[in-house]
């Protein structure tokens, strides 16, 4: 009776999108599972339990589950839980991640441009036009030649 937990630890669990669960008792490569389930990626389920802070009104811990997509050559290990994820779900997730990154990048760029514009406005108000020998030297050199008339011989 006490050996049930030992059997569970000595197996790997694969959850299908339709709710079906497979238990395997030997390590296997992800590409073999992907070959048996075309159109799906294998993902490792990572569960984290976050305990609320004393300030928060929630007393129960929050369980956060993340997934990590595995490469085809990765080995599925015993005692772990894996989930099959369809290609469409993966693409939706990647697009959402890309859009969030682009949005963050454009917001950062906009803030940078606004900051630079305000700095330029402030610096142009503070600056007064100055003449110095350095600024006169920076002009392009122009030769001063007199016209020479050609004499026909």
Please provide a written account of the structure.
The protein has 153 residues and is an alpha+beta fold. Helices cover 38% and strands 24% of the residues. It has four helices and seven strands. It has helices at 4-9, 30-36, 87-126, 133-137; strands at residues 12-15, 21-24, 28-29, 40-50, 62-69, 75-76, 81-86. It has a five-stranded mixed beta sheet with strand order 2-1-7-4-5. The longest helix has 40 residues, at 87-126. The radius of gyration is 34 Å and the shape is elongated. The chain starts with a helix and ends in a 16-residue tail after the last helix.
Assign an overall shape.
elongated
Identify the strand order in the major beta sheet: 2-1-7-4-5
The overall pLDDT, averaged over residues, is 78
Range of strand content: 15-25%
How many strands, which pairing sense, and closed or not: the largest β-sheet?
5 strands, mixed
In DSSP terms, counting alpha (H) and pi (I) runs of 4 or more, how many helices?
A: 4
Compute the CA-based radius of gyration: 34 Å
Give the N-to-C terminal Cα separation. 126 Å
Task: Produce a short descriptive summary.
With 153 residues, the chain is of the alpha+beta class.
Features:
153 residues, alpha+beta, five-stranded mixed beta sheet, two-stranded antiparallel ribbon, 24% strand
List the helices and strands and how they pair.
Blueprint: H1 4-9, E1 12-15, E2 21-24, E3 28-29, H2 30-36, E4 40-50, E5 62-69, E6 75-76, E7 81-86, H3 87-126, H4 133-137
Parallel strand pairs: 1-7
Antiparallel strand pairs: 1-2, 3-6, 4-5, 4-7
């Amino acid at each position: 009776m006490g050996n049930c937990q030992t059997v569970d630890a000595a197996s790997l669990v694969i959850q299908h999108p339709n709710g079906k669960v497979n238990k395997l008792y030997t390590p296997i490569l992800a590409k073999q599972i992907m070959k048996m389930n075309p159109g799906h990626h294998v993902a490792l389920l990572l569960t984290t339990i976050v305990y609320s802070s004393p300030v928060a009104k929630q007393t129960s811990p929050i369980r956060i589950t993340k997934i990590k997509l595995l490469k085809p050559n990765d080995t599925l290990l015993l005692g772990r839980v894996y989930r099959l994820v369809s290609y469409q779900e993966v693409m939706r997730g990647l697009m959402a991640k890309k859009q969030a990154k682009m949005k963050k990048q454009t917001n950062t760029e906009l803030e940078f441009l606004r900051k630079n514009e305000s700095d330029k406005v402030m610096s142009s108000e503070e600056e007064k036009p100055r003449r110095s020998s350095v600024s006169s030297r920076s002009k392009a050199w122009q030769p001063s030649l007199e016209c020479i008339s050609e004499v026909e011989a």
